[in-house]
Amino acid sequence: MVKKQDQPVSGQVYAPPVYPMKTKTRITVLFVVMVGLLIYSSQRTEVTFSSLATGIPNMVQVFVKFFPPDFDIMDAVIKRLAETIQMAVIATTFAALLCVPLSLLAARNIMPNRWVYFTVRTFLNILRTIPDIVLAVIFVGLFGIGALSGILALIIFSLGILAKLISETIEAVDMKPIEAMRASGANSLQTICFGLVPQVLPQFFSFVLYVLEINIRASVVLGLVGAGGIGLLLDQQIKFYNYPQAMAIIIVIFAAVVIIEFISTKIREAIV
Amino acid sequence: MALQLPPKKKRPFAKRARNWLIALAVIAIYIWTFTGIEIDFAKAGERMANNFHRVIPRLFDPNWETFSQVMDKMMETLFIAFIGSLSAAVLAVPLGFLSARNMTRNRVLTVAGKWILSAIRAFPDLILAILFVVAVGAKPFAGVLAIAVGSIGMLGKLYSEVLESIDMKVVEAMEANGANKIQILFHGILPQIIPEFLSYAIYRFEIDVRASSVLGYVGAGGIGTLIYFASANRNWNDMGMILFVIILVVTVIDLLSGYIRKRIV
Lengths: 272, 265
Hints:
The complex is a heterodimer.
Chain A: H1 21-44, H2 49-65, H3 74-105, H4 114-129, H5 132-143, H6 147-171, H7 176-183, H8 188-224, H9 230-239, H10 243-271
Chain B: H1 13-36, H2 41-59, H3 67-99, H4 107-122, H5 125-136, H6 140-164, H7 168-176, H8 181-215, H9 224-232, H10 236-264
Helix pairs in contact in B: 2-10, 3-4, 3-6, 3-8, 3-10, 4-6, 5-6, 6-8, 7-8, 8-10, 9-10
Family (chain B): Belongs to the binding-protein-dependent transport system permease family.
Protein name (chain B): Phosphonate ABC transporter, permease protein PhnE
Organism (chain B): Caldibacillus debilis
């Protein structure tokens, strides 16, 4: 039955509301809550429009000091950048190797045992919540300053991300070939090698490249705590107020990230 | 009769050559990496043997006296992430519209918008934080700015992808019926994009909580400040407490945001 209000009244065109009343109230409540939270948190963090207004001219003043960038320290920068990339490559390789068993254990369709599945899943979730800088600080405390601490921190950091992405890929595969193989008497190892791996491999390499990108970015963080890489150099230059040199380093990092992202996007497009 | 596999299909020469080239490049990268890196395993092993009992057991024995202080700083981190991602969620909307091909007819503008967004994304958050700390001083405000600017890049890109995937038939029908731009925006476009925009904004908040817990290390406020002090003083009990609070709060935020996102999409 047509509701009364939906019937056109003679002489005027009736337009039904685009958004139902329920959605409207919901959005209004949400809006009020968000604004309230915003006001409260801006008080807590002392962020106000006036600080923004005074901040912007100040910012312009400071940013001018960064220009023109001074590329005289290029030799040191290139050496550190090479170290950064090497650390990322090593860490990504080890994380890729380590994540294979972990992601198999954390895939519901491969791991029949509920308890193992949940334990590994929870472990991975906790692993992913630990910020990279905390891992780096801990490993520097253990192994001292140097690239090794950075590599270990990156391995743990990327292991969490990679294992999660890959276990989700494994859960999304087509199970029919695997069931067929099981039915014709293949053992677990055989089903994984010939039924699962061919389906997952392109995605696997794509995610590994993605994690390599993340690791190169993260190694900026690592340098700050003395775990090797280009971040250390940047921190030193900022602390000594060598802003033009710092700008040169920032430009180099920026260029490196853009180039590596470009290459890895092209490769990922080619293999998936 | 012996069972036999069918003969393998011959691959074209170009493809084989390409695969060989890729293999060679990968091998070259690995040789460069492993010969180039300098690691003093002996020294690191020695240090590890000395430090192990000083670090690891203390990490698992967090200093509960600092719980309220750590929690307070963690809340500050959450507030920084909230303001940062909320302002980014709003500021990214015009950029998203600018770089969506079906919203901006001018190709030069869309390409420019995409370039701006990817340039922002290429900056690691921490470098932005370092720059803003230099600019506005070591306070949470610097963290908010770093988070806001850093999030605009990703949100703008995701927004523009959502916009490019909307059903344009609705918009065309409205245009044909003589609706003006504002009517099309409010009744044709917004209903299609709001759930996904919200979902991405919440997802970015999740990332920003992780990101802003690090920013304090360079002076941009939040729990990172405590990480800095704990690491400078080698106070591993405090570090254990910080780690515990971060794991707890981030897990809760992840669960909540996952739940909300599932509801709205």
